[in-house]
Amino acid sequence: MLTAAGKLMKVFLTRRIPPEGMKILSAAGVCEVSQWDSDEPIQRADLLKGVQGAHGLLCLLSDKIDAEVLDAAGPNLKVISTLSVGYDHLAIDEIKKRGIRVGYTPDVLTDATAELTVALLLATARRLPEGVEEVKNGGWSSWKPLWLCGYSLSGSTVGVIGLGRIGMAIARRVMPFGVKRLLYSGRTAKDYAAEVNGEYVPLDTLLSESDFIVVSCSLTPETQGMCDKAFFSKMKNTGVLINSSRGTVMNQEDLYEALSSGQIAAAGLDVTTPEPLPTNHPLLTLKNCVVLPHIGSATYSTRGIMGALSAQNLLGGLQGTDMPSELTF
Ligand code: NDP
Ligand code: DGY
Question: Which of 28, 140, 165, 279 is the most exposed place for a label (fewest CB within 10 A)?
Answer without folding.
Answer: 279
